Each structure stands twice: as structure tokens, then as C-alpha cells.
Amino acid sequence: MPRFAENTVGHKTIVAVLCAFAFAATPGIARAQNTGKDVPPVLDVHVHAMDNDNGFTLGPTCPNTAKFTASDPKDKEAPFGWAQEECTPKLYPAAKGEYMKDVLAEMERLNVTAVVFGDPASVKKWKDAAPNRVIPGTSFEDGMNPGARVPLAELRKDFTSGGMKVMGEIGLQYEGISPSDPSVDQYFALAEELDVPVAIHMGTGGSGRANVAMPKFRGSLGNPLLLEDLLARHPKLRVQIMHAGYPMIDNLLTLLQANSHVYVDVAGLIWSYPIKEVNRYIQRIVEAGFEDRVMFGTDQFMWPKLMAYSISIIQNADYLTPEQKRDILYNNAARFLRIDPAGKK
User: Fold this and answer.
1) Which pTM was predicted?
2) Would 197 disulfide with which of 3, 10, 238, 321, CB 3.0-4.6 Å?
3) Residue 113 in 3-state DSSP?
């Protein structure tokens, strides 16, 4: 989702929740919420610098939905097209004013360092609160003005002197724009020039996204192969495909084969779909030979325990070896972000 300022409502806040979907019960949730604080280090490459003081708060939720329900256009549809399901236990939103504090406490407990995306002022707030846990990221999209762009000179300053380290989340799919569109190429050229990795939303956008909330959203624009022209123009660009381009697995594998510096994150996907489907998708990427390109992420927002829950999905994956779990939870992102020269953990 694009950069956004805290304490705002409307389109910007809507976009801030579009990477999440519907939810249902799963046996792993109890284990997830009680993950030990002594776990090895984790890198979460997909967290949002938001809060629930902006007039928009989701209620309790259950990860890994069992189904996505149909709707009828003659009826009043739910604001985000999410299925309503019951489960026990549930994840609960933070109390008003407590979200950042609660998430940072979870990061400390779980030994997580996270790439936190948002407008520079919001991200700085998180960085100041937890300087050793936060890797700052921001995008060229102006969440206050849909379709508007941050001036190139301002973005350059964000990355050369403002402390930003990752360009993202880039949510062009919600605007109906391909990542290879020439209209945004100057921003990717800047990222290549400054050797800044870019994190691009590709793939899923939530149940009923185009007909319920975002009429410009196009599922076809989540096709990972749409990155090919961009990568051809900028061969040194490091790209993080958010949500692993779900569900376009064949096109994703084609792109990964052709471009060895492209990585994926499993954020959002990992807790938004039926657990068997989530595991099949990740397993397919790993068994196709790309285990060193898969990075852990949550798409963390609203529910502080979501991070622990998401970690548990990888920890409990019986198709992954202990080495593969550590690579996904830490080593692959450390390599992509160039932050751990001392070696694997």
C-alpha cells in the first residue's frame, strides 16, 4: 500500500487496508499468539506505520479464511468485500492510541526487525521509538491525493539524507497502472541510481476489490511478468514482489527464473487465504528451486498479534527444513537488504 500520513481518513486509509482480506479459524493461532520471546532473529519486510486513531478500525478477526463469498450487486455490499466468519480464538485490534506501542512490543518479544512503510513523518515516529527494530521505507505515491506523485527531488532527499532505505509500498495496481508504465519510470531510475530496493504490490488485492472499493484495481496488473520491461530498463534494480504475486504462480516462477535479483515476500498472503492454499503456494516456489528468494512478511496492521501468527505459519510448515525456515524468516531478507554482512542467523 502507498505511503500515507497517520491520523487520516478516506481513500488513503482505505488503501492502507487493501492488502488484507477475510479471515477464519485455524489451529495454529493459539500457538502463534504464544510464540516464545527467545526465538532466533526474524526480518519482517512488510509492516505499515499506521495506527487506529484515524477514525477507521477493523474489529476482531480470524486469519486464513475458509472461503470468499459471492455478492449480489443489488444488495448493499460490505465496504471491503470480506467474508464474515466466526472463529475461536480471534485476533483483536489494539486499543485506541496503543497500536504502535503494542506492535513494537511484539517485535521486541519476537526478536523482529521490520521494514516499516509509510510517509516519512510516520515512519520516523516508529524509527525514533525503536531505532534498532525499524528499517524505514517510503514510496512515491501521495496517499493524501490519489494518483498524485511525490516530487522526484523530495523523494531523492528522503533516501539520500532522510534515512529511508526501501522504496515501497508501491501500489500502482490499485491505480490501474503497470509497474513498467513509463509515467513512473523516473522513480525506479532513481532507485537504481541510489541502489535502493523497491517493494511493489503485485497479485491479490482482496475479495471483490474492483467492484466494491477500488474501481481502478485490475487483477491482471498483478501479473509478475509485467515487471519484465521495467527490469530490462533497469537491470541493477532490486525488486521485492509483495504478496508473491499471488495467485499467478506460473508467471511468478517464469520471472524468477529469468531475473535472479528479484525476491518475493509472503506478506498478506500468509494469513489471508485458506491455510492449505497458502502452504501449497509457498511450497511450489520453494520446490521450484527459489527457496533463497522467499522473504517473510506480515503486511502488519491493526492486529498486533498478527506478526506472531504469521511467523507460526512458517515455523509449523512441515514441507520446509529447519534451514529453509531460517532462510525465509531471516537470511534471505538480510541478503536482499544487505544488512547482515556477518553471515546467516
Assistant:
1) 0.88
2) 238
3) strand
